[in-house]
Design brief:
This protein is of the alpha/beta class and 412 residues long. The protein contains 13 helices and 14 strands. It has an 8-stranded mixed beta sheet with strand order 2-9-8-7-6-3-4-5, with helices on both faces. The chain has a 4-stranded antiparallel beta sheet with strand order 10-11-14-13. It has a two-stranded parallel sheet with strand order 1-12. A hairpin with a 2-residue loop joins strand 4 and strand 5. The protein is globular and about 65 Å long. The site of pyridoxal-5'-phosphate has 14 residues, from helix 4.
Amino acid sequence: MSTAWTSRFALRTKGIRSSAIRELLKLTEKPGMISFAGGLPSPEAFPIQRFEEACHKVLAQKAARALQYSATEGYEPLRELIANNMARYGIEARVENVMITSGSQQALDLIGKLFVNRGDRVLVEAPTYLGALQAFNIYGADYISVPVDDDGLRTDLLEKPLRTGPKFMYVLPNFQNPAGTTLSEGRRHELVLMADRYGIPIVEDDPYGQLRYEGEHIPPLVVLDRENLRRDDGYSIGNVIYLSTFSKTLAPGIRLGWIVAPPEIITKLVQLKQGTDLHTSTFNQYVAYEVARDGFLDQHVKFIRQLYRERRDVMLEALRESFPPEVTWTHPHGGLFLWVTLPRDLDMQEVLQSAIHENVAFVPGDAFYAHPELESRQHMRLNFSSATPEQIREGINRLSLAVKSQLLLNYA
Ligand SMILES: Cc1ncc(COP(=O)(O)O)c(C=O)c1O
C-alpha cells in the first residue's frame, strides 16, 4: 500500500521494524500467561504514597513553576540531588555535568543524533540492549559486536576491533540487559586504558547499578577513566559518557533519566534535545525531586533490592530444580534478568511456541544481537522482577516442560 504519506517516509526509516519484544508482549497479555519476557519493574516497587504526597506538595506550593516550561538541562535541585547521590558511588559530577533526559532511552537517541553518521560503526556487546540498537539504527549505525562472558565484555578480543576505529563503544558494565553479567573490575581497568590508548570513547549505560543483590560495588568506568586520566578539575575531558535512570529505582512511567558528560558535550546535547522535546516534563522532575529527597531514594533502593533479590533467588532455585542438565544459565549479581543457554540444536522459535502453549513467555536471545545471523541462537532472556515468587516457580516449571518437550522431539 502506498499512500501520499507512506511513499514519503524518510530514507532513514527504511528497515526499521517494530521490536520483537513489543510484538511478543502483545501475546503475553493472554489471560493466565506468566511472562518473563518484558523488563518491567514490579508495581510493588513503586513508592505510590510518596508520589501522592509529592504531587500534592508540588501542586500546593510550586505549581506556577512546576507546570511551566523549564530549562532543557533539567530542574537544578534534581540535578544536584543526582550529583550528590552518584558521589556515593564514586562519581564526582558537578551539576553542570548532569543533564536530565526523558528516560535513558532518550539519552541513547540523543547520543545517536550527536555522534552517529550513516555507516559509522558502534562497538557493542554481543548480546546488548535492544533499545540501544533501535536508537542508533535510525541514524544509520553499523556495528562491531564483541562477545560477553560471565565477566562481561571480552576485553581480550577488543584490540583488533578498536584498531578499526569505531565511533564509540556502548557498554553495560552492571547486570547487563539481557545477559545479567557484570564486567569484572580487572576488565574495567583494561577497558578504560584501551579506550584511551586507541582514542575510542565509551558510552556507559548503567540503569541497574544500584540494584546489586550480592557482592561488592565495582567502580563505574566513568570513575576509573577519571582516575586513569588523573583529572580532578571536573569533567573538562574524559573518555566516558555515563547514563542512568530513575526507571528502576522510582518508576519508569515518570520517564526520567540522566546523562553525565563533559560540559562541551552537555552543551551540544542540550541543543539537540531542544529540537526533540524542549525539556523533560517539568512537573515530573519536581515530583521526582520531592520523592527522592531527604534520603528516601536510598532507603527505597534498599527495599527494592530485597524484593528483587528474593525473586532472583526463587528463579535460580526453580531453574536448578526443574531444568535438565544440558541447560545452563547466568547468576546475575543484580538487575532484572538472567540468560539461559540451551543446547545448540534447539530451534528457539519452536521453544517459544511450545512455551506460549504452556502459558509462559520469554524473549528469544537473537533479539539482542546486532548481528543475529552471526551469533549463536540458543538463548532466552528471563526477567525475574515482575512476576511474584509463586508465579516464578509456576512459570519456570511450565518453561521446563516446554524445553523438555523440545529436547525430546529433537532427540526422537
Ligand atoms: C540497558 C538499558 N538502557 C536503557 C534503558 C531505558 O531505560 P529508561 O526507562 O530510562 O528509558 C533500559 C530499559 O530497560 C535498559 O535496560
